[in-house]
């Protein structure tokens, strides 16, 4: 959910005109945190591509209060607008969202995989979220209402659809790169020129490649979709594809070589 404070912060950073991104969400999203799911034997999660329809992404996670966390399964439906997975709009009741999710899993996943969710239940009453993300790339240095320069990072500067599974990775890399830049320049000054230089390694090595990758994955059928479908029957391709999630700069190289 985007709050008023989020919008006010983002307004400090102008859009980067070098990026031509869709003006609207590429997917309608529904996320559920579930108990009672049979664990994936490999604990790696599942990424199911449904050509022309969207994606179903499932992976293990933690829920509960700090100090009392427990394992759960997080399921994300990435629906092409108007497609068969796009059924959660206007549905506010968590129980109804779970019923719809079970139906979609039964209809669109292989039986052996769908069976893992047969006894699934929500972890709590707040365990569902429905919405959409409009991708955007902004300049990394903005201007506060006071006129002071401010360095941005993570989703404020490079916001991607979660279907590429790169948003959190990019934000973590951003934090590390900025921390290293601060330590290298501990005596300052931390002015606008320094901010631009500090942002460049993160943008060039991590954020921009991940944004291009995500856009490619969510585009209409193309090389990346062909690769993912082929990887379902070829463990070597599957390993190569999975490795790119940890190394987003390799993603565009892989796409170019297909």
Radius of gyration using CA atoms only: 20 Å
Q: First CA to last CA: what distance? A: 36 Å
Structural class: alpha+beta
Which assembly state applies to the chains in this document?
A: single chain
Outline: globular
Strand content: 15-25%
The number of helical runs is 8
Commentary on this structure:
The chain has 258 residues and is of the alpha+beta class. The protein has eight helices and ten strands. The protein has helices at 4-10, 94-108, 111-114, 167-184, 192-218, 223-231, 235-246, 249-257; strands spanning 28-35, 46-50, 54-63, 70-79, 121-122, 128-132, 136-137, 141-143, 149-151, 158-159. A hairpin with a 3-residue loop joins strand 2 and strand 3. The protein is globular.
Relevant terms:
8 helices, globular, 258 residues, two-stranded antiparallel sheet, alpha+beta, six-stranded antiparallel β-sheet
Mind sketching the topology for me?
Elements: H1 4-10, E1 28-35, E2 46-50, E3 54-63, E4 70-79, H2 94-108, H3 111-114, E5 121-122, E6 128-132, E7 136-137, E8 141-143, E9 149-151, E10 158-159, H4 167-184, H5 192-218, H6 223-231, H7 235-246, H8 249-257
Helix pairs in contact: 4-5, 5-8, 6-7
Put the structure in a nutshell.
The chain has 258 residues and is an alpha+beta fold. The protein has eight helices and ten strands. A hairpin with a 3-residue loop joins strand 2 and strand 3 (54-63).
């Amino acid at each position: 959910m985007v709050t008023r404070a989020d919008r006010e912060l983002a307004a400090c950073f102008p859009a980067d005109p070098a990026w031509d991104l869709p003006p609207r969400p590429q997917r309608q999203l529904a996320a559920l945190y579930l108990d009672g799911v049979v664990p994936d034997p490999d604990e790696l999660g599942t990424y199911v591509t449904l050509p022309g329809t969207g994606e179903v992404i499932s992976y293990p996670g933690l829920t509960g209060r700090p100090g009392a966390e427990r394992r759960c399964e997080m399921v994300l439906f990435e629906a092409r607008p108007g497609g068969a997975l796009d059924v959660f709009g206007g549905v506010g009741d968590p129980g109804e969202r779970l019923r719809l999710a079970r139906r979609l899993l039964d209809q669109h996943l292989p039986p052996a995989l769908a069976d893992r969710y047969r006894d699934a239940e929500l972890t709590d009453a707040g365990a569902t979220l429905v919405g959409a993300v409009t991708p955007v790339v902004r300049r990394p240095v903005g201007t506060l209402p006071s006129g002071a320069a401010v360095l941005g990072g993570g989703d404020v500067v490079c916001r991607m659809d979660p279907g590429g599974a790169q948003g959190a990775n990019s934000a973590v890399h951003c934090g590390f790169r900025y921390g290293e830049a601060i330590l290298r320049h501990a005596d300052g000054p931390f002015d606008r020129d320094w901010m631009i230089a500090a942002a460049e390694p993160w943008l060039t090595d991590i954020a921009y490649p991940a944004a291009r990758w995500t856009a490619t994955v969510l585009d209409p059928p193309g090389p990346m979709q062909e690769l993912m479908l082929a990887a379902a029957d070829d463990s070597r391709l599957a390993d190569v594809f999975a490795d790119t999630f940890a190394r987003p700069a390799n993603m565009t190289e892989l796409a170019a070589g297909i």
